[in-house]
Specification:
Shape of chain B: globular
Oligomer: heterodimer
Number of domains of chain A: 3
Number of strands of chain B: 5
Distance between the termini of chain B: 22 Å
Order of helices and strands of chain B: EHEHEHEHEH
CATH class of chain B: Alpha Beta
Low-confidence stretches of chain A: none
CATH superfamily of chain B: Cobalamin-binding domain
Largest sheet of chain B: 5 strands, parallel
Structural class of chain A: alpha/beta
Strand content of chain A: 5-15%
Mean pLDDT of chain B: 93
Structural class of chain B: alpha/beta
Radius of gyration of chain B: 14 Å
Chain lengths: ~550, ~140
């Protein structure tokens, strides 16, 4: 460690405190032969520019990471997004993943669940249990987490428009296990703004959607203090075709919109800002991705401090989950995807991610098989336990290339955020279609480069083979939909209908007032009102958003 | 092939609840660049809505995209909805995350061509061109 008063200050105040609370994984990290791996390599001479742009890990502006010891303290959470068909099948897959060393769950819901339709809704035909698990009521949620201890396992749920309902179900299941809200750990995605520009599972128009989100922030700050209330997602923006710079800019712009909405609703900045989390894509341009993660951290810290006046370091820290880039997977020569995922996962780790999902090789064809999922998880484990990249913090810092690119991505993203602000903020930019057009243009340019062979995709436009291999694929039996609908019918007959009706009426009244929605949703969930019924009440009050095409 | 006398109009539709429309949008734009008039429905349309739009816009072909695994239900439903509107002669093409083993079932249900990940735009545009030509010839005979 370099000799500098600031370095000593960091060692004493930040590092010392952290080591006391979280000792490192090993007493000593060494190369083969015993040479010690330094915790944080720094320039010999620490100057003002270094302190301003990089600083030390766990300290503003967090360029080098959000924790002082990063993976020396604790490895990232290996969190594989999974879920399909019904609750019982998905529960089996989660327990399989936990047995194989995954350290956090990540629930994929089917599209009807994400868009607030019951499995027997005419809109749900053909989609039940397809891209995730079908959840109609608390009864399904109880099966989903059967024998999974919610006081120790953290759960991330990819749910947005209907996040309040699924969160309420999760809280209710935990209660039944005897786990109080204060103890549950995990994340709901709850990022509606990116749904309008990239992912498409919106229900209500933007403004009532923001109200639901701020209600969640407020309720959670009192009842589930360690649960992450939002995962502000660039992942899907990138999947929709954006560049790395656009991914950072649009994500952080969305982030500022949530912060502003919460402040406008009267919430205190430090009461919710530390529970904000982010979600980024890791694509194949390894060095650009590493720079992107570092730039995003620095830019968010500056926005929180300078624009919103955050004073707590935890309110300025950009903590993020990463998933490797689904759009880079090819249907041809699928084993090549294992190599792509390895590069992308490495970029995420070199960029300081807090948790990681690695895609499976067969996902350009179908949902992954168990074997493919295991290889994807093993990829993370090889990086974690064999590569040594986690034994030192932010190992690429100080590379001329990486630092220049970090600066450049930060500057360009910052400029794009300014453009959005001048146009009236991100909600206006979404309503106007500005964000969507930017993403579409990038997607089109990218595809044209592939068409013209300027961009090589191995096995697709170069190095093709004739082999016609049909890998075994995971199929969702159409019977799943019929059985789910049957189960729902039974539920409706067996529950206390009067209690359901009363709870739904109360929810409607709450929605029309400006009271917090969460208590009314929880009450409805507890008496087994279905997701579709609860969302129907809110649809009637808030209206629905429709894509213009 | 050379010098089409008519500027074909086609519809790109997203049936069901799937929101992944990067491919649909890129294709609509590529079709426009290739001289088609391409109308894009937007996401989350029912098969009936797509058929209605196809008839209303008087298109020569419909392209459907689904990445959520619901293609076996939704693509044939669009063909059916077109027939019910007396527009069963409009050719329907499909694309998305679709396993090879589903291709036969889709073709039997009346989907003319199905394209899976890795297909070049040029290939898809050519298929639209052929489908529109055939549709045009079929109509001028009657």
């Amino acid at each position: 460690m370099a000799e500098h008063p600031k370095a000593r200050e960091w060692e004493e105040r930040v590092l010392g405190k952290s080591l006391q609370r979280f000792p490192e994984r090993k007493e000593k990290f060494t190369h083969h032969g015993g040479e010690e791996v330094p915790r944080v390599a720094c320039p010999e001479k620490i100057d003002a520019s270094y302190l301003e742009k990089l600083g030390f890990p766990g300290q503003y502006p967090f360029t080098r990471g959000v924790q002082p010891t990063m993976y020396r303290g604790r490895l990232w959470t290996m969190r594989q997004y999974a879920g399909f068909s019904n609750a019982a099948e998905s529960n089996r897959r989660y327990r399989y993943l936990l047995e194989h060393g995954t350290t956090g769950l990540s629930v994929a819901f089917d599209l009807p669940t994400q868009i607030g339709y019951d499995s027997d809704d005419s809109m749900s035909v053909g989609e039940v249990g397809k891209v995730g698990v079908a959840i109609d009521s608390l009864a399904d949620m109880e099966v989903l987490f059967d024998q999974i201890p919610l006081d120790t396992v953290s759960t991330s749920m990819t749910i947005n428009a209907s996040a309040a309902v699924l969160l309420a179900m999760y809280v209710a299941v935990a209660e039944k296990q005897g786990v109080p809200g204060e103890k549950i750990k995990g994340t709901i995605q709850n990022d509606i703004l990116k749904e309008y520009v990239a992912r498409g599972t919106y229900i209500f128009p933007p403004r009532p959607s923001l109200r639901i989100i701020t209600d969640i922030f407020q309720w959670c700050s009192q009842h589930t203090p360690v649960f992450n209330t939002i995962s502000i997602s660039g992942y899907h923006i990138r999947e929709a075709g954006s560049t790395a710079v656009q991914e950072v800019a649009f994500t952080l712009a969305n982030g500022t919109a949530y912060v502003q909405a919460a402040l406008d609703a009267g919430l205190e900045l430090d009461s919710f800002a530390r529970r904000l989390s982010f979600f980024f894509n890791a694509s194949s341009d390894v060095l650009e991705e590493v720079a992107k993660f570092r730039a995003a951290r620095r830019l968010w810290a500056r926005l929180m401090k300078e624009r919103f006046g955050a004073t707590q370091p935890s309110s300025m820290m950009l903590r993020f989950h990463t998933q490797t880039a689904g759009n880079t997977l090819t249907a041809q020569q699928i084993d090549n995807n294992v190599v792509r995922v390895t590069l992308q996962a490495l970029a995420a780790v070199l960029g300081g991610t807090q948790s990681l999902h690695t895609n499976s090789r067969d996902e350009a064809l179908a949902l992954p098989t168990e074997e493919s999922v295991r290889i994807a998880l093993r990829t993370q484990q090889v990086i974690a336990y064999e590569s040594g990249v986690g034994d030192t913090v932010d190992p690429l810092a100080g590379s001329y290339f990486i630092e220049q690119l970090t600066d450049s991505i930060e500057a360009q993203a910052s400029e794009l955020i300014d453009t959005i602000d001048r146009a009236g903020g991100v909600v206006a930019a979404i309503e106007d279609g500005f964000v969507q057009r930017q993403i579409e243009n990038s997607a089109y340019d990218y595809q044209r480069e592939i068409e013209q062979g300027e961009r090589v995709v191995v096995g697709v436009n170069k190095f093709q083979t004739d082999e016609k291999v049909r890998p075994p694929l995971l199929r969702i039996d159409p019977e799943v939909e019929r059985a789910q609908v049957q189960g729902l019918k039974k539920l409706r007959q067996s529950r206390d209908s009067a209690a359901v009706q009363a709870a739904l009426a109360k929810l409607g009244k709450t929605a029309r007032s400006d009271a917090n929605l969460m208590p009314a949703i929880l009450e409805a969930v507890r008496c087994y009102a279905t997701l579709g019924e609860i969302c129907r009440v809110m649809r009637d009050t808030f209206g629905e958003f429709r894509d213009a095409g | 092939m050379a010098g089409r006398s008519k500027k074909y109009r086609v519809l790109i539709g997203k049936p069901g609840l799937d929101g992944h429309d990067r491919g649909a949008k890129v294709l609509a734009r590529a079709l426009r660049d290739a001289g088609f008039e391409a109308v894009y429905t937007g996401i989350r349309r029912t098969p009936e809505e797509i058929a209605a739009a196809a008839v209303q816009e008087d298109v020569s072909a419909v392209g459907l995209s689904s990445l959520s695994g619901a293609h076996l239900r939704l693509f044939p439903a669009v063909v059916e909805a077109l027939k019910q509107r007396g527009a069963g002669d409009i050719p329907v093409l499909g694309g998305g995350v679709i396993p090879d083993e589903d291709l036969n079932a889709l073709k039997q249900a009346g989907i003319v061509e199905v394209y899976t990940p890795g297909t070049s735009l040029a290939q898809v545009i050519e298929a639209f061109e052929k489908a529109c030509d055939r549709h045009h010839q079929g109509r001028s005979k009657t």
